[in-house]
Specification:
Blueprint lengths: L1 E10 L4 E9 L7 H12 L6 E8 L5 E8 L3 H7 L2 H6 L21
Antiparallel strand pairs: 1-2, 2-4, 3-4
Length: 109
């Protein structure tokens, strides 16, 4: 797997690094965990403090474009990222939907 960092921006407002990378590979598209580890090794970040926000592949190409966010602490990551991203990254379980109670029957007058 070959990782090419396209851009590496410091977002001071949210205290994170925003990375755009292009990863090329020979066989099938790697799993998200493998992509996260490859990008984190390239930039020298902890993979547990990184989330992949977008992975875009094109038909017929053996490469993907990745948008990843690297945080300095686990607490900041959990406070900033939306629930669906934390569920997708395996940091939390999917919250169960609350069932709505059936409406009360109307009384005839």
């Amino acid at each position: 797997m070959n990782v090419n960092i396209v851009s590496n921006t410091d977002n001071k407002l949210l205290d994170r690094k925003e990375i755009v990378a292009e990863v090329s590979f020979d066989a099938a598209t790697p799993k998200r965990l493998q992509l996260k580890e490859a990008v984190s090794q390239k930039i020298g970040a902890n993979p547990e403090l990184m989330v992949l926000r977008k992975v875009v592949s094109s038909f017929g190409r053996h490469s993907v474009t990745i948008t990843a966010y690297a945080y300095p602490s686990k607490e900041l990551l959990i406070a900033t990222e939306p629930t669906y991203v934390k569920v997708r990254e395996g940091m939390m379980q999917k919250p169960e939907k609350k069932k709505k109670a059936a409406p009360a029957p109307k009384k005839k007058a």
